[in-house]
Amino acid sequence: MTDTPAADRGTILVLNGPNLNLLGISEPERYGTSTLADIEQLATDAAAAHGFAVACVQSNHEGALLDAIHAARGTAAAIVINAGAYTHNSVALRDALAAFGRPVVEVHISNVHKLEEFRHHSQLSPVCTAVIMGAGIQGYKLAIDFLAGAVS
Ligand code: DHK
After folding, report:
1. Which long-range contacts (CB under 8 A, 24 or more apart) does 97-101 make?
2. Rg (CA), the chain
3. Span 51-82, pLDDT tens digits
4. 82 lines ligand 1 (CB under 6 A)
5. Known catalytic residue at 61
6. 2 confidence band (pLDDT: 50, 70, 90)
7. β 53-58/11-16 pair status
8. pTM over cut 0.70
């Protein structure tokens, strides 16, 4: 039996939106003490275990997130996205994800239904394959474990 070379199944885009660069510093009682670097390492390790590479992008700018999704069309096997607050109001991100055409998992560190009512609605969920929330940063690993089965 030969070892499966890492990344031979393609690349998963791991996209984090506004303020997630402040994880571990901002509102730790709500979002925990892990950092964005911890998430990106967790995602990298989870993906490698399934033969995927990851491309990690974080931006505080909606247009940069849109550009990353557009660039992933035809190049990435799947997307894991935590769009932060844009989750709740960005029709543009919803439309970009709808155009991606491959599996997308929406992740939230917190259970947004326990938070303010304005966070209870996601513009993105209707165009995502799956939604994982409330599992802390482990949600990113759960998303990748799921995608390993969902990507053909
Ligand atoms: C992260 C944010 O920054 C918020 O704007 C969302 C999400 C929830 C999270 O739980 O990962 O409302």
Report:
1. 97/69, 97/124, 97/127, 97/128, 98/127, 99/69, 99/70, 99/73, 100/69, 100/72, 100/73, 101/73
2. 15
3. 999 999 999 999 999 999 999 999 999 999 99
4. yes
5. no
6. very low
7. parallel
8. yes
**Does ligand 1 have an atom closer than 6 angstroms to the CB of 84?**
yes
Helix (H, G, I), strand (E, B) or coil at 20: helix
Domains observed in the chain: 2-150 (3.40.50.9100)
Q: Does the annotation count 86 as an active-site position?
A: no
Q: Which of 58, 52, 44 is nearest to 16 (CA)?
A: 58
Contact (Cβ atoms closer than 8 angstroms) between residue 71 and residue 59: no
C-alpha torsion angle, residues 29, 147, 21, 121 (rounded to 10) = -60
How many distinct helices (H) and strands (E) make up the chain? Answer: 5, 5
Find the mean pLDDT for residues 1-22: 83
Q: Tell me the CA distances in angstroms from 118 to 18, 30, 51, one per residue in order.
A: 16, 16, 38
